[in-house]
Amino acid sequence: MNTTPMPEPLRRAIHHLVSEGVQNCQEVLRYTEPDQAHTWKRMTLYRATDAADTMNMVAMLIAAYCQHTGMAADTLESYLQVGQQDLRSAGPQEEDRAHVAGLMGEALSYEAMRAPTDRMRYHRGQRQAEQAQRPEDDPGKLFTEAVLHGLKAKLCDDVDSLDSYLPPQMAAMARRVADALEVPEPATA
To answer: What's this model's pTM, rounded to 2 decimal places?
Structure first.
């Protein structure tokens, strides 16, 4: 068993990239709010793909290091889960359209229902649509969103804006998160 810790320069680079990815994820959430009706399609896609690209850079950086230190190609391929890779350039696939149909309460064609992946994604969309109708929400999801919104508001020194675009419960939670954070002082040499 290899117990060598991650080299510090690699660790810092990964922390930087993950932070960038998290900021992009927060912006995806921000652009879903009602006051963003004029830009939500463009901006959620931009920020979601930015987050995906950034996290892909994290994976490839780690993979390059593993390759550099002699990891076997089949092990690296297994860790990278290459079978899960989807290319955005191909655009939405049938399972994505099935998911949207489930979310929107629309029927799925007989042909689409024959494919197990389409059926699974359609039913996932139906469950998510049902959950969206209930006012209560998963506490873990609420907490995650509040942390992201609170962090962004604190970093931008714009905590007061939370009340202008978030539902009251979420704004209150995000405000508590922002209030609990201390902005780090720059390191001095």
So the answer is: 0.74
